[in-house]
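Sequence only, no structure available. Ideas?
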Amino acid sequence: MDHSPHPSSPASVAAMAWSGLLVAALVPAAVRLLRRSPLWERISLPAAVALPLLVLLHAWAVLGDAVGLRPPGGALVTEPALLVAAVLFWLPVVAGTRHRLSDPGRCLYLFLAAPLLDLPAVGTVAAGHPAAGLAMIVAMLPVGVTAAAITWFWVNREEREAAAGPDPYPRGGDPVAR
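Reply:
I predicted one. C-alpha cells follow.
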C-alpha cells in the first residue's frame, strides 16, 4: 500500500520544494559554515564523480515513482542518500579540500549542474504535476545564483588584478632606493 502523497497535492509540492531547498541552499550553507572540518578532506570526491552522483541520485529521488524504481521505504531511503550526495557535490565548491575547484572550474561545475538538476523536475511537470515540478525548479534556483555570484566575484577579482598590473618591484622595495 502506497502512503505517499499524490504528486499534485500540497504535501507533495511542499516536499519537492523542501528537497530542492535542502540540496541547493541548506547543504551548501552548512558545508560553508563547516568548510574547515577535517571530515570534508576524508569524504571529498573529485568533482567529476560528485556531480554525476548527485544528478543520478536526484533523478532517482524525484522520478523513482514514475519509472517504477521507488525503493522500499520511499523518501526514508532516497532523502538521506540525496543529502549525502548533496554534501559531496558541494565540497569541491565551498570547502577547502584537495578536490576544491578553481574559480573557473566552480563556475563551469555549477552552470553545468543547474540544468541537469532541473531535468527531473521538468519530467515531473511533463508527467502532469506542474506545481510539484515548478516548486522543485524554484527551490533549486540557488545553484544558478551561486554560479552567477562566483562568476561575478571571479571576473571582478581578475579585472582588479589586471588593472593593478605586474608588481613593479618583484624582489621587494624600490630599486632606485638601493
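The helical segments are 10-33, 38-43, 47-63, 75-94, 103-126, 130-139, 141-164.
Hope that gets you unstuck.
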